[in-house]
Specification:
Helix content: 40-55%
Number of domains: 2
Radius of gyration: 17 Å
Structural class: mainly alpha
Length: 215
């Protein structure tokens, strides 16, 4: 898997809106078998393949984020299948009215994941599970929070490539002794339980989808 928010400008997803009816025939002609995750399978497969991601992981994120509702907007302003924030859309030069377009939205979500992986530069030795967990955490709470947790891990002599360690420091970022540390750049982090729950749930969906759908 590749993945989000780097310091260099992201590659901009194609902005042309793709009418859903171009994908609907693919869905309608799909037999009702256990190889189907959602009506967006053809779209998600294509976008994921273009960026070298497992489409079942992208589907798992969409399930957790939106329950595959491309029009949903959260109370925080996150939009669409992948619950992309307006600030992220601006970074991809996507207009607000395009954010609910399924193709555009999935491209932004996958582009964000790609940026995360490129920015963190995981070593080859890291386990796939740790890589996935850390990337998903950054997708949910922002790369800055995860980098703070990893810097704290390094400071205290722990493995910053271990999700168990990173998740511990994400929780500790709610305590002054940690969020006031000089290595921390984004300050206090109160929503750690939400982020840890997000990672756990997405991975649970992903494991399930790997059992029912082929790559």
């Amino acid at each position: 898997m590749s993945g989000v928010c780097g310091t260099t400008p992201p590659s901009v997803p194609e902005q042309s809106s793709t009418p859903w009816n171009e994908y609907a025939p693919l869905w309608n002609n799909t037999p009702e078998t256990n190889n189907v995750i959602s009506q967006y399978d053809p779209l998600i497969r294509k976008v994921a393949a273009d960026k070298g991601f497992d489409w079942r992981l992208i589907s798992a994120i969409a399930m957790q984020e939106s329950r595959f509702d491309h029009d949903v907007v959260s109370h925080a302003g996150a939009v669409g299948l992948m619950q992309v924030m307006p600030a992220v859309a601006r970074g991809f030069k996507v207009a607000p009215e395009q954010m609910t377009d399924p193709l555009t939205n999935v491209r932004m979500g996958v582009g964000l994941l790609e940026q995360i992986s490129k920015t963190i530069r995981f070593p080859h030795s890291i386990s796939q599970r740790d890589r996935l967990s850390i990337t998903l955490a950054a997708y949910n709470c922002g790369l800055g929070r995860v980098l703070d947790a990893r810097r704290l891990a390094v400071k205290y002599g722990e493995n910053h490539n271990s999700w168990n360690v990173v998740s511990k420091y994400l929780v500790l970022l709610s305590e002054p002794a940690y969020y006031e540390d000089q290595v921390v750049r984004t300050g206090i982090f109160r929503d750690n339980a939400q982020t840890l729950g997000f990672v756990r749930k997405v991975l649970r969906y992903y494991d399930s989808y790997c059992e029912i759908a082929s790559l």
